[in-house]
Amino acid sequence: MDNTTPKNSLVIKNLQVAVEGKEILKGVDLTINSGEIHIIMGPNGSGKSTLCYALMGHPNYEITGGEVTFNGVDVLALEPDKRAHLGLFLGFQYPREVTGVTFGNFLRIASNNLQKNREPGSKPASPIQFYPVVQKAMENMKMDKSFIGRSLNEGFSGGEKKRAEIIQMNLLKPKIAMLDEIDSGLDIDALKTVAEGIQQTFEEQQIGILLITHYQRILNYLKPHFVHIMSKGKIIKSGDMQLAHALEKEGYDQFITA
Predict the structure, then answer these.
(1) What is the dihedral of CA 91, 221, 174, 154, to 10 degrees?
(2) I want to staple 186 with a disulfide (CB 3.0 to 4.6 A). Which of 50, 190, 201, 211 is the partner?
(3) Per the structure, how many domains does the chain have?
């Protein structure tokens, strides 16, 4: 990115979130701009996934303080679908199965819906028009085109579900994408494919990415600009790839107890 004002910016200030009355996030400050990859690492229970779900408007996550804006728009005042229309995307750690809705139709309808909201009056893509787009995205993620006609995530392996999440991110063209432990449960080959898919989408679309992970291994294939450590509901340290290497070598204790 150059020194001009970023085209898209998600600004989180002093965000506080509770789940069933228990405070999880205790004041998170973070700004994610177009053309930036942010990694958040931290121990279990530190609030990493809570941050993603709260930003997307999950009803079980109560905002008790702070503010979140996207290009000046109050994100917390919007329903989850409006946040998606605004340009936010969440890739799940455990993607849900949706029986009776084919993967291809899901992608086409979602893409058309987003396009309609971003460009009122635009003509929706027909199945014939959209099929080659999906097929190319699936080839890039090394998924057989037969998955286009299968129910969304139904019978998919763990790795196939994660690849499907990256295909969604690529085709729905968000402005800010949050990926919640997208690398969990992946074997070596699937991890490489998923990571390369993330990097390719980033380079082609110059979106902002927030990736939650426990492991440094996915960073062998990504080029993050910022690495953050979260503990007890707050970001306690930020740095670059050197911070991730230090975590891999020495663990969290040196930062949490400091």
Answers:
(1) -30
(2) 190
(3) 1
The pTM of this model reads 0.92
List, run by run, the mean pLDDT of 10-residue segments along the chain (258 residues).
66 97 96 96 92 96 97 96 94 90 94 87 89 94 94 93 95 96 91 95 96 89 94 94 86 74
Residue 107 included in any domain: yes
106 alpha-carbon distance from chain centroid: 18
CA separation for the pair 179, 158 (Å, rounded): 15
Q: Residue 108 carries which side chain, given as an amino acid letter?
A: R
14-23 tens-digit pLDDT: 999 999 999 9
Looking at the DSSP assignment, which residues form a beta bridge with residue 212?
40, 180
Residue 2 included in any domain: no
pLDDT in tens, 103-137: 999 999 999 999 888 888 888 899 899 999 999 99
| 3 located within any domain | no
62-70 and 9-19: which strand pairing? antiparallel
Rounded to whole angstroms, how far apart are CA atoms 237 and 156? 37
Structural domain harbouring 31: 9-256
Q: Which residues of 151-177 are buried (b: 16+ CB within 10 A; e: fewer)?
A: bbbeebeebbbbbbbbbbbbbbbbbbb
At 226, which CATH number?
A: 3.40.50.300
